[in-house]
What does this fold into?
Amino acid sequence: DCAIFLIRDLREIVPLFAQYLLNLGSPTVPAGYTLTDAIEMVVSHNLVQPTRALLDIFISHGGIQIRYENLLADPAAEIQKTLKFLDITVTDEGISSCVEKHRQLLFDGMGAPGIPGHRHIFNAQTSSLFRVFLGGEQLELGYRLDDFPPLPTAHDRQLGFFEAHRRPYYIWADDYRQASAGIRCLHYLCHALNEL
It folds into this structure.
């Protein structure tokens, strides 16, 4: 099996996709949406189903995985790894020549190695949503979650569950599943209410 998978940290993909949708404007994204609003929409809706489907293909096929970050950091090593997988022999000089010839194309619009990515855009709210909707997939791809902003505690939010003035409501929904928009919306609503 000669499948080659290029994978990337989902936290880097989300803001790029959100900005792309914002640039498309209405009706793709409701008027007045900020980047944070679009990130929440992408995390809780747009990327969940396709990410799971692609990850299932990724897991079920043999092949090689190339990490986007490694490709930017050391293109020659990743090309060599791919050629070895494909049982193709190319000299180190040939690979170096290829990298130099296409270096500008490789880095255009991607940011040079060592420049921080888009993860700094995530705040506590969007990080929490990401953990709920895409956290499992992020870990399955071999990326981290522990460098996100910490989840706010009830004390941080100045909430007291046992305070007399609170009137909690209980909302019940079936287990989360992609096939039902209603269930997805209820889970998103519950998550948003829990963050208040």
Notes: The CA atoms of residues 76 and 92 lie 8 Å apart. Residues 112-116, 159-167 have pLDDT under 50 and may be disordered. The first strand starts at residue 4 and ends at 7.
